Amino acid sequence: MMKESQARKKATVKAAQAVAMIVAAHLLSTAGAGAQTAPKTSTANGKVTARRDVTARPASTGGGSCDIGVVIATGDEFIVKSTGLTIFQNKTTAVPIPGWRLGDLMFARIRAAIPAGVSVLRIPYFPAKIPSHDSSKDTLMDRLFRDLKAELADYMREVVKGTSCRHYIQIGNSISPIGSSNYTVRGFGIINQDVLVGHRIYLYALAFIRVFDGRDFSVIRQSSALINLQPLMVQRLLGAQISGPYRELPEASFPARPEDAAGNSALRDDVRAMLAESLDKTLPFMLGVRPTTRQSDTKER
User: Fold this and answer.
1) What is the DSSP secondary structure assignment for residue 37, as one 8-state letter?
2) Reduced to 3 states, what is the DSSP secondary structure of residue 88?
3) How far apart are CA 159 and CA 123, in angstroms?
4) Alpha helices in the chain (DSSP H)
5) Residue-wise pLDDT tens for the chain (301 aa)?
6) Helical ranges in 114-198 per DSSP H
7) Bridge partners, residue 171, by sequence
8) 10 Å Cβ neighbour count for 227?
9) How many CB atoms lie within 10 A of CB 228?
10) Contact 184, 204 (CB under 8 A)
């Protein structure tokens, strides 16, 4: 009797693991891209309620095989940018922020969105090992005949070399124009716009998500991480100044010196909050919870 009971328990465990593997493969099997319409999933404190605890399974790191490999390619920097009415007022400074642990936050939110029982591997990202861009291929003829999909696939193969996962999720920096100006912002940062009527201060957290097939490294889905899940074109028409999560802050919030930003807990907490909420709202779509449509006006690099 005891042996029969143990055998049933082992069979149940194996069945649960098999179901989890099937669920993960199904979630990532349908091709699609981009912007989303508002979800019906209920949220509380910026987090989707139907979500498992990220501490239920330890995070994996390093090389090897897995169901889903995760690459965080955003870097640990915060951009402090000033723009003015003349080019002499324009200044951009990249401030190192390793203490903000944005990469750990992103991996935790990805792990929380993936079903229990699915193996997840965090793959270290080393920009130095990626081949540098060949500027000789920037001629008009080369740009017309470039195979961007093939270039992206080759890039990702190099990034995850030494691993073998069914799918890969990469988070990089998204890019957005500012209002109707010619200026753009990228990744995480704060901008001080000196306009005729005064100063406009915007804090932003712009991430871009891609899901790759682990066999041929084709892109299955891609989108900016968004809090407002309306199409970006609609957001712009409604007056959004930045395509992605951002907040307008008082003028006093802008750092007196760029390097002061790294130790500013208010800026850190606001960026982390916007990033977590945008990932929690966007990742369910990226994993195939609801169909998505193309987000053509979003840029990433």
Assistant:
1) P
2) helix
3) 8
4) 2-27, 102-113, 140-145, 148-159, 232-237, 265-286
5) 444 555 554 555 454 444 444 444 444 444 333 333 333 333 333 333 333 333 334 445 555 689 999 999 999 999 999 997 777 778 999 999 999 999 999 999 999 999 888 999 999 998 866 656 555 566 666 667 778 889 899 999 999 999 999 999 999 999 999 887 888 999 999 999 887 667 899 999 999 999 999 999 999 999 999 998 777 777 777 778 998 999 999 999 999 999 999 999 999 999 999 999 999 999 998 887 443 343 433 444 4
6) 140-145, 148-159
7) 72, 209
8) 18
9) 17
10) no
Q: Record the tokens describing residue 222, joined without a space.
A: 């891609």
3-class DSSP assignment, residue 28? coil
Give the separation between CA 16 and CA 115, rounded to whole angstroms.
11
Q: Are 35 and 294 in contact (CB under 8 A)?
A: yes
DSSP state for residue 108 in the 8-state scheme: H
Q: Can you read off the two tokens belonging to residue 27?
A: 């979630």
Half-sphere exposure of 154 (CA within 13 A, CB side): 9
Q: What are phi and psi of 264, to 5 degrees?
A: -90, 105
Direct distance between the N- and C-terminal alpha carbons of the chain, in angstroms, rounded to an integer: 61
Report helix angle 102-113 to 265-286, nearest 10: 30
Q: What is the identity of the amino acid at 154?
A: D
Question: Is-contact 113 284, C-beta < 8 A?
Answer: yes
Task: Please name the residue that has the structure tokens 């992605």.
Answer: 244
Q: Over the range 2-25, which residues count as b (16 or more CB within 10 Å of their CB) and which as e? A: eeeeeeeeeeeeeeeeeebbebbe
Looking only at the bridges linking them, the beta strands covering 207-213 and 163-177 are: antiparallel
- Based on C-alpha coordinates, what's the Rg of the chain? 21
Contact (CB, 8 A) for 80 and 180: no
Q: Do the Cβ atoms of 67 and 21 come closer than 8 Å?
A: yes
